[in-house]
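Structure tokens please, single chain.
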Amino acid sequence: MFGLDPLWVSTALLIVTYATIMTEKLNRAIVALVGAGLMISLGILNQEQAVEGIDFNTLALLTGMMLIVAIARRSGIFQYVAIVSAKAARASPAGILAMLAIVTGLLSALLDNVTTVLLIAPVTLVICRELNVKAYPFLFAEIFASNIGGTATLIGDPPNIIIGSAANLAFMDFVYALTPVVIVILLVNCLAIHLIWGRSMTTTGDAKARVMALDHRDAITDRPLMRKSLLVIALVIVGFMFARFLGLEAGTIALFGAALLLLLVNVGRSSEDQHHHLIESFNEVEWITIFFFVGLFVVVAGVEHAGLLKILADWLIGISGGDMHDLGLAMLWVSAILSAIIDNIPFVATMIPVIQNMAPTFGGEQALLPLWWSLSLGACLGGNGTLIGASANLTVAGIGERAGVPFRFLEFAKVAFPLMLVSIAICHVYLEWRFL
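Here you go.
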């Protein structure tokens, strides 16, 4: 439109979109959708190209898992897990700090990290209130554990969902490649957080008795729903593990699992009850996140179509001398630092086509595997560096502030950024040893 150079217009739109998202003055879904609309309206993409740029597998995977968790949480199963964890630590503040971090990491690998912290953080606040200890260290530990645990699998962290779909990587590919280093990093961070806060935490005998008196069985409010939910979650995870053999995408498996769970919990209900239950379930899907992805995919498709990402790919190859070892390590550290500054989801969405454009240089898509693992580790773990680095961080901060637990950007970064750098240093050694 107006004879403008598509390369410059699309680049300007990308920068303005990212900058506006970072200011947090407008909801990021609004910003992404406006950016997408401008990409199409200014003629950088036609409508068919815009639709082709949307990764529907990622959207299906996110929507399916959100539905499953929205239904399952009504049974009380996640609160049950949190209370059992606290009692297993004998109500010791330091023990609960470590236990809840480990549980958060495990659930974040099997569900997704934002959903996990939404379920665990409120229960954590209750336990901290009973123990009369500061909740900030517990919530901090859960932020870190959620991003670390989410790195281990395809479904744990949104960046991995996008990478897996774009690179055709299956659930077990992530497990084999990333879970070993994730376990090490989670344990190292638990130790570090114990040294920073855990070892100095104290409480009274009465407070411990109150926590030990919590009845975890009371947390289960609907046992039939719990059994149905656990069955479907197990089937979905098995489906992810055998996705390649089944010839199914992860998005199909997640949506089918959600549909199956909806069927199981609605059979025998009246039409009116089914309608009410469906509205409740679908209302709990984070549609803001879904439409943020829609807009973001179109914005990134615009700069890719205009040629910016090929230029960036050629530049990265040039400065690394075409050496996979140097490029992989550079990708790890650059991804980590930038993901701490900007949200890791738009960063990953931008970097994926950049890496894809490198395939001819390195001899095909299979040769790009080390770069995918570098991007995943850097983006997912780099998100721990600041409060704005990942969605889970802002989610926990919001829950904490509503409960009177303030989260300050600099206070968080003062501890988080060094711990994030330690995680990336471990990844550096791991990537050199295993992939580079």
